[in-house]
# Entry
Amino acid sequence: MICPKCSEPDAHRSHRQGLKDRVWGWFSMIPYRCKKCNIRYYAYQAGEKSDRMRTKEERRIMKIRRSLKWKRSRRELSLGALALVAFLISIYFLLQQTVPAGQ
Ligand SMILES: [Zn+2]
# Structure
């Protein structure tokens, strides 16, 4: 994370401590601490992805993570579709069996 004060990419997520951090947490604000100038600040969770706050390397890692996540959800989706098709086929055969013969 890039520090808003000294612009060094040396700020890291700080542990939540005390009531103030928890209150900020309700608004999706995460505490960060800069190792260079030692300031503590809060950053909006969604703002983590912004170019201003992230270094090039960090953004690259996040992009990879996002695509991995997408691949995983796509696999889950196709598995779900497969299960649905199998379910529909079994329903179809069950219905065929219950239809009285000679109708
Ligand atoms: Zn700093």
User: Anything to note?
Assistant: Helices lie at 18-26, 56-98. The CA atoms of residues 14 and 75 lie 34 Å apart. The pocket of zinc ion is lined by residues 3, 5-6, 8, 34, 36-37, 39 (CB under 6 Å). Residues 56-98 form the longest helix (43 residues).
